[in-house]
Every structure is written in structure tokens, then in C-alpha cells.
Amino acid sequence: MKRTHEIESCSGCIYRKLLFDKLDEAEHKIIDGARTELAFEKGEVLRKEGQKINSFMYLRKGLVKIYRTDKYGKDHILGISRPGEFISLLSIFSGSTYNYSVAALEETHVCDIRLPAIKNVIKTNPAFSLNLLNRISKISEDIINIQFELNQKQVRGRVAFVLLLLADRVFMKQEFKMPITRREVGEMITMTTENTIRTLSEFRKDGIIEISGKTIRIIDYQRLVNVAKNG
Questions:
Q1: Given pLDDT bands bounded at 50, 70 and 90, which one contains residue 92?
Q2: How far is CA 122 from the centre of its chain?
Q3: Burial of 75 by CB count in 10 Å (0-12 exposed, 13-18 middle, 19+ buried)?
Q4: Fold observed for domain 152-230
Q5: What DSSP designation does 12 have?
Q6: What is the model's pTM?
């Protein structure tokens, strides 16, 4: 982790409208004075499950995985976040410590805002507070929906669902470099690494996808949708 300084002020940030558009100039100065820009390398942990909550983070660049670790030391990926998303909303008001971990899947830049500043603005700005609650609800619904969908499917349907999730919601294109390993895909769908690798190979043999190293290209999008729906 290292500190950076790429943004002159919050008022000029391209992500201002995502959450902070309801703030007046005085409130922007409060937030601006309480933020630190941080950069993480691939594999670095931004937040650790059980760590004390003292700040609020939003993702400016890169990709991160949100995961929990069970009593046997096995990780379970809950989701992947992309730039413009807020990666600590689910915990900052629910308790004193994080109930999940966040790790960088590639070089990642975040703005880290001290929690007292956020709470001060919440107390005086109802529109901002409502916007924040809407964001928390949306993130919670996404995680619940993803887990529900995965639980209804067999291994082929689960792998297809994850590929579509990456294509449609993370990269917004049908050719992308896998941000997670085959093992991590298995963690996300609660399947073994071997089952995940075998299923990806089946999709390749069936002409649904092409695999070149870590790059996946979806050749037959509709067939993949059908597998995700019926698998």
C-alpha cells in the first residue's frame, strides 16, 4: 500500500455524482479534508475481516474481491467490485469491525475517508443520508441475488453465471482477462477447482467460449445464457 495524490479536490472528481452530488461546498471541504488516496498492488488486502472500522472507501481504479473466510481457512468470494463502487458500505454502520475482507485483483486505487467526517455529514444532510442508504440496499440486494442464483444451479450453470457476471457487469464486454483464478472461481460458486477447470474445458470444447491463457472470449453468448438459466 502506498499513498498517492491524483485528485486535486473532491469537487473536481469524476465520481462526485455517484454519491457526493448532494453535498454543498462546505460539506465537500469536510470530506476532502478527511480523505487519503491509497494505491494497492495485486493481491494486497485492503480490509481484513475482523479489522476495526475507522474509514469509508470507494474504488477509483482497479478491481477487488469481497470475501469471507470460514473456520477451516477457506475463502468464499461474495462479489467483485469495479471502479465507481463503494467497497465498505456493508459494514461501516453495522458494527465496530468488518465482517468480510477486501483484496485487490489488480492494481487498485481507492479514496479512504475517515468515518467521523462521513457521519458528521450524515447528521446534517438528509438527502445524502438517503442516497447512502439506497446504495447500501443495492449492494445487499446484489449479493443476495447472486448467492440465490448460484444456489439454484449445478456446476455448469454456476460457471456460466460467473462468466456472464464478469462479461455483463464487471467488464461490459464479451472478451476479458480473468481477474480471478480457477480456484477463486470455485470459491465463488462453492465448487472444487477441478470441477471448475473441467467445466471451462467443456465450454471450450462445445464452442461456447475460447480460452487463451487467462483471456476468455465468449463465442456463443446465447448458449452461455441458456446454460446459466437451465444448468
A1: low
A2: 24
A3: middle
A4: Arc Repressor Mutant, subunit A (1.10.10)
A5: G
A6: 0.85
